[in-house]
Amino acid sequence: MVPHNPVRAGVIEQVDVLAEIYAHGFGHLTGNRGADPGDITVDRPVLLADPIPTPLAVRKELVEHLFETYECPSTYFGPTALMACYASARYTGLVVESGAGYSAAVPIHEGYVLRRNIQTTSLGGDTITDLLEQRLMDRHPTALRPAYTLTPPAPDRPAASVDLPGVTPEYHAMRRRWLVEDIKACVCDVPDVPMDDSTDPVTPAHYGLPDGTVLTLGNERMTIPEVLFNPSLLDRPGSRCTAPSIQSIVVKAVGGSDESIQKGLYQNVLPVGGTTALPSFNRRLAAEIDSMKLPVYKTKVHHYNTEERDLMAFTGASILASLGTFHQLWLSRAEYAEHGAEIVATKFM
């Protein structure tokens, strides 16, 4: 099996692969598991959480799939940042999205996304995972063995390797990456102050690998997440990282907004996405913002349950779809039949 990820850096690059995922999901929801996409009919409206970097051309293709293939009655594209804002019971705020492939600072005022002032950076969870995997592979080249390659350990014997035929290198790399992502979630931490490899040693953290051995991580468990706030740590001889830091896109997004709403944005900074669930992320973000901006407005970074941050868009979309007046915002099949996919450009701004 060769796994495919249709999304790269937050942008859907393979709509046909994503359509297959939709077909799998719709098949389960409609009781037509394993059916061809053309044999599946969706009789309910479909609300899509729309990442900020999604190109207009991709939105058009998705609308065509929903109406032409699945014959759904209506659809709506909800910006993920706006949905997360609704989940926090706010209509104004500066949503700091930091997921796998990108991070974005999205100013929202009275329920409207100020798209001209959105700032993005390529730094995100994948940046940390890539660095951590590279560091672990350099230091422990044979240690990162996914659980599927091992027999379960027992009190009287350690885990043993299992040779499974037909496993592709791509699948093995994917499972190894899952392991690295779990290590990241368990032991990585955002330092309260800037640090690098020359910083005094910090308290090490331990992680039990599937084969029963214990992995110990020292400073790297903090210096690697530090790149979110100090991208210069990614500089290499002859290659300089040009991606802006998390705090710089926040200050730039607020600074580009109308002065009359800047106070409300700084006082309602909403971190969402799996990367913001790293311990001490909020505290470090607030400190870095305060160090860059003029002390005119107070910065308040709101705290939410870290286990829910990667689900904020889903939660907000559920709230929005349940509102009695929301039916007025759907894009209906009749509108699509009259205007075609071009209506997406004006319907969902």
What is the element layout, followed by pairings?
Layout: E1 7-8, E2 11-12, H1 15-30, E3 46-50, H2 56-69, E4 74-79, H3 80-87, E5 93-98, E6 103-109, E7 112-113, E8 119-121, H4 125-139, H5 169-187, E9 205-208, E10 214-217, H6 220-223, H7 246-255, H8 259-266, E11 269-272, H9 281-292, H10 312-321, E12 331-332, H11 333-339, H12 344-347
Parallel strand pairs: 3-4, 5-11
Antiparallel strand pairs: 1-2, 4-12, 5-6, 6-7, 6-8, 9-10
Helix pairs in contact: 3-10, 4-5, 7-9
Q: Would you kindly provide a written description of the structure presented here, covering whatever features stand out?
A:
The chain has helices at 15-30, 56-69, 80-87, 125-139, 169-187, 220-223, 246-255, 259-266, 281-292, 312-321, 333-339, 344-347, and strands at 7-8, 11-12, 46-50, 74-79, 93-98, 103-109, 112-113, 119-121, 205-208, 214-217, 269-272, 331-332. It is an alpha+beta fold. It has three domains: 7-79 and 313-347, ATPase, nucleotide binding domain (Nucleotidyltransferase, domain 5, 2-Layer Sandwich); 89-123 and 244-303, ATPase, nucleotide binding domain (Nucleotidyltransferase, domain 5); 125-234, Alpha-Beta Complex (Actin, Chain A, domain 4). The strands form four sheets. Strands 5, 6, 7, 8 and 11 form a five-stranded mixed β-sheet that branches. The protein has a three-stranded mixed β-sheet with strand order 3-4-12, sandwiched between helices. A two-stranded antiparallel sheet has the order 1-2. A hairpin with a 2-residue loop joins β6 and β7 (112-113). α3 packs across α10 (312-321). The radius of gyration is 22 Å and the shape is globular. The mean pLDDT is 87.
